[in-house]
TrEMBL record:
<keyword id="KW-0812">Transmembrane</keyword>
<dbReference type="InterPro" id="IPR001296">
    <property type="entry name" value="Glyco_trans_1"/>
</dbReference>
<feature type="transmembrane region" description="Helical">
    <location>
        <begin position="271"/>
        <end position="294"/>
    </location>
</feature>
<dbReference type="Pfam" id="PF00534">
    <property type="entry name" value="Glycos_transf_1"/>
</dbReference>
<keyword id="KW-0808">Transferase</keyword>
<dbReference type="GO" id="GO:0017176">
    <property type="term" value="F:phosphatidylinositol N-acetylglucosaminyltransferase activity"/>
</dbReference>
<protein>
    <recommendedName>
        <fullName>Glycosyl transferase family 1 domain-containing protein</fullName>
    </recommendedName>
</protein>
<dbReference type="GO" id="GO:0000506">
    <property type="term" value="C:glycosylphosphatidylinositol-N-acetylglucosaminyltransferase (GPI-GnT) complex"/>
</dbReference>
<keyword id="KW-1133">Transmembrane helix</keyword>
<dbReference type="GO" id="GO:0006506">
    <property type="term" value="P:GPI anchor biosynthetic process"/>
</dbReference>
<feature type="domain" description="Glycosyl transferase family 1">
    <location>
        <begin position="66"/>
        <end position="213"/>
    </location>
</feature>
<keyword id="KW-0472">Membrane</keyword>
<keyword id="KW-0328">Glycosyltransferase</keyword>
């Protein structure tokens, strides 16, 4: 139809199974004919870099403030808040938590979240008799995440695939030192002084966590100072401005010719490219038939959303208010201007 299109994605699909491989292929087919793509990190689909913008997620920093009285470092608390699925590294947690507890007697864990891997974590706790050192909270509402995080010193993120990882930004904003796997777009999220990176392997994750524990005990890291940096790095105002520029740029583009769009489909693979071209041609012919059967001139055009004219009463001088003052002491707010 030649409509201006922007696709925004906040996730990554791996290649661990046939379903994921097929999903990636279909995603490439779909995105071959969009004007622009917004993603949350540079680790994304193999597309023309001129058509992709990496705009990260953000957070309301005041909702993730550090604790006024940070917990004592006599006992180091490691927090994990995640969906308990395989791709979130729950198998790694099952393997590493007993080893970390064995190496460090003054370490305890708080695990929040739900999912099919919760039973594996519960069995690990029972098997290693860690009931007094590992606390399972179950599902946590988002508004309660800060209350859980400020109980800890370290946030452990063992994910196997991740496009961005907003939760590690929330953890750093709450004043936690972050231990995370070096996968997907995670290395782009936080500066090195806030994180300890590990390979998604059991031994490396244990070593990285032990390094973070030592840093917290020695006082060489001051996580409570991270909040101000996060507030400046991840602002929704900045995200909105960057997104608006992408939309403005799309509207200035000229519509592509059909032959150019088919060429992009054809470049998706030796066999897949031919199949994608066939699908696109069939869809185009269906659109032509529908245009003939029910022309667009017979379809009602949606009206523009009406804009209300906001009026406020003024009791002070006209310099104290926004808008234009009328002789009767009322001010129109100018929000209805085009």
């Amino acid at each position: 139809m030649g409509l201006k299109t922007c696709f925004t994605d906040h996730s990554l699909f791996g290649f661990a199974d046939a379903a994921s491989i097929l999903t990636n292929k279909l995603l490439k087919f779909t995105l071959s004919d969009v004007d622009h793509v917004i993603c949350v990190s540079h680790t994304w689909a193999a597309l023309d870099p001129f058509t992709v913008s990496a705009i990260p997620n953000a957070l309301v920093s005041k909702d993730f403030r550090p604790a006024e009285n940070p917990p004592s470092t006599s006992t180091i608390t490691i927090v994990v808040i995640s969906r308990l699925f395989y791709n979130k590294g729950c198998d790694l947690l099952v393997a590493t938590i007993p080893r970390i507890c064995a190496q460090h007697e003054n370490v305890r864990f708080i695990i929040g979240g739900s999912g099919p891997k919760a039973i594996d974590l519960e069995q690990m706790i029972e098997k290693n008799v860690l009931q007094d050192r590992v606390e399972m909270l179950g599902p946590i509402r988002h508004e309660d995440v800060r209350n859980v995080m400020i109980r800890g010193h370290i946030y452990l993120h063992a994910s196997l695939t991740e496009a961005f990882g907003t939760v590690i930004v929330e953890a750093a904003s709450c004043g936690l030192y972050v231990v995370c796997t070096q996968v997907g777009g995670i290395p782009e999220v936080l500066p090195s002084e806030m994180t300890v990176f590990a390979k998604p392997e059991e031994d490396d994750l244990v070593a990285a966590t032990s390094k973070a524990i030592s840093a917290i005990k020695s006082g060489t890291i001051r996580p409570e100072l991270f909040h101000d940096q996060i507030r400046q790095m991840y602002s929704w105002t900045d995200v909105a401005e960057r997104t608006e520029k992408v939309y403005d740029g799309i509207m200035k583009l000229r519509s592509s010719r059909l032959i150019d769009r088919l060429k992009r489909y054809y470049g998706c693979g030796v066999w897949a490219g031919k199949l994608f071209v066939l699908c696109a041609v069939i869809d185009y012919l269906i659109m032509i038939f529908l245009e003939f059967w029910w022309p667009r001139r017979n379809i009602d055009v949606a009206r523009d959303w009406p804009r209300k004219k906001v009026v406020r009463q003024v009791s002070t001088s006209p310099t104290d208010v926004e808008g234009v003052e009328n002789h009767n002491g009322w001010v129109s707010d100018l929000q209805d201007r085009e």
